[in-house]
């Protein structure tokens, strides 16, 4: 024991290799001197102990390969990728929500008629009056087909025809809308014998579209203005059928709200 304490400066690896020959020497029945330890420490007989010394770097290489699973490099990569996917998905949902407006069909058609009329040479205010009249006519026709409205009597039909003959006809939206020119020079549609006020229609649209009013109006004007003045009226209703809100078929869809897709309207513009 005293002899080993004096050799403390020896490297730990050298001490371990020195202990093996000593145990082997005991089996042969003779002690091992300090002079015999040194040659065995640096001699070629120590080759069998080298694989043991090489185990440490081998484990480090293996650990290095497994490291990304739980190491510093792996964890940050996993967390940002999840966060990025969540952020990207959230942004996509927000963008999609921004491009869709929940509203029923009547105000959509009313505003669309106004945008088309403006493209055809009328003022937007005049277009609002035409839009309300056309949306009303189509709602009555749809309501009768669904049984929501009753068919008018023959007497009422004849009376309406007689009154319409007294009115002017304004070509707009591919139709001839009955109306009259006011003393101020406004061309307005007539309903129940009275001109439809543009201001009342404007208020109706603001209530229907809310904060999305200007976005919807801008998208419709852009679409209408992409067509030549003499073509937009012919294409107007077929375009409306493409972008109008989707609602349940039949009576279930009567007055129901759907989504007006602003992005789809941009894709319909005529280049």
Question: Can you characterise this structure?
Answer:
The protein has about 270 residues and is α+β, with helices and mostly antiparallel strands. Helix content is about 60%, strand content about 10%. The protein contains 13 helices and six strands. The chain has helices at about 1-5, 10-30, 35-40, 50-55, 55-70, 75-100, 105-120, 125-145, 155-165, 200-210, 215-225, 230-245, 260-265, and strands spanning about 100-105, 170, 175-180, 185-190, 195, 255-260. The strands form two sheets. The chain has a four-stranded antiparallel beta sheet with strand order 2-3-4-5. It has a two-stranded antiparallel sheet with strand order 1-6. It is globular, with a radius of gyration of 44 Å. The model is unreliable at about 1-80 (pLDDT under 50).
């Amino acid at each position: 024991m005293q002899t080993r304490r004096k050799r403390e400066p020896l490297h730990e690896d050298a001490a371990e290799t020195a202990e093996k020959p000593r145990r082997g020497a005991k089996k042969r029945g003779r002690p091992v001197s300090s002079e015999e330890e040194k040659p065995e420490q640096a001699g070629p007989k120590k080759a069998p102990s080298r694989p043991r010394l090489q185990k440490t770097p081998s484990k480090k290489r293996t650990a290095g390969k497994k490291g990304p699973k739980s190491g510093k490099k792996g964890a940050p990569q996993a967390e940002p990728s999840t966060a990025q996917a969540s952020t990207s998905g959230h942004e996509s949902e927000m963008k999609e929500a921004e491009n869709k407006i929940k509203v029923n069909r009547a105000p959509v058609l009313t505003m669309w008629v106004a945008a088309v009329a403006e493209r055809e040479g009328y003022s937007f205010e005049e277009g609002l009056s035409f839009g309300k009249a056309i949306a009303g006519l189509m709602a009555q026709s749809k309501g009768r087909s669904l049984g929501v409205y009753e068919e008018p009597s023959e007497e009422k039909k004849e009376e309406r025809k007689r009154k319409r003959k007294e009115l002017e006809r304004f070509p707009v939206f591919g139709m001839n809308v009955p109306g009259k020119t006011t003393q101020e020079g406004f061309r307005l549609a007539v309903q129940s014998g009275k001109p439809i006020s543009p201001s009342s229609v404007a208020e109706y649209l603001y209530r229907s579209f809310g904060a999305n009013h200007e976005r919807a109006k801008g998208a419709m004007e852009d679409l209408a203005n992409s067509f030549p003045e003499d073509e937009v009226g012919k294409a107007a209703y077929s375009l409306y059928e493409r972008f109008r809100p989707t609602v349940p078929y039949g009576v279930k869809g009567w007055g129901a709200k759907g989504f007006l897709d602003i992005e789809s309207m941009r894709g319909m513009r005529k280049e």
